[in-house]
């Protein structure tokens, strides 16, 4: 069962056991969400939502972060007024060994390929 929010500032997250492969793959199938995850993985620490320079509206960015959180890919927590985002690498690696690294490696390889016309 998804952990309920304790207060209005707490955000619900799936427990490790609730994280489903199809949900993770769906979350990572969107280029903006994959971009967020790639950046979190590269930095290796929590980043605030405002850190990300996404070419979408604020409401669309909020939607992308929510999809990532609800699928179990990221953890979001408020620190003061900032909503911090962290990759749930331990949970993902424990449930799906090698999947995150394979997806990130594939995304890195794709990013350097020439764009087809």
UniProtKB/TrEMBL annotation:
<keyword id="KW-0804">Transcription</keyword>
<dbReference type="GO" id="GO:0003677">
    <property type="term" value="F:DNA binding"/>
</dbReference>
<keyword id="KW-0805">Transcription regulation</keyword>
<dbReference type="InterPro" id="IPR011991">
    <property type="entry name" value="ArsR-like_HTH"/>
</dbReference>
<dbReference type="InterPro" id="IPR036390">
    <property type="entry name" value="WH_DNA-bd_sf"/>
</dbReference>
<feature type="domain" description="HTH arsR-type">
    <location>
        <begin position="13"/>
        <end position="107"/>
    </location>
</feature>
<dbReference type="GO" id="GO:0003700">
    <property type="term" value="F:DNA-binding transcription factor activity"/>
</dbReference>
<dbReference type="InterPro" id="IPR051081">
    <property type="entry name" value="HTH_MetalResp_TranReg"/>
</dbReference>
<keyword id="KW-0238">DNA-binding</keyword>
<dbReference type="InterPro" id="IPR036388">
    <property type="entry name" value="WH-like_DNA-bd_sf"/>
</dbReference>
<dbReference type="Pfam" id="PF12840">
    <property type="entry name" value="HTH_20"/>
</dbReference>
<dbReference type="InterPro" id="IPR001845">
    <property type="entry name" value="HTH_ArsR_DNA-bd_dom"/>
</dbReference>
<protein>
    <submittedName>
        <fullName>ArsR family transcriptional regulator</fullName>
    </submittedName>
</protein>
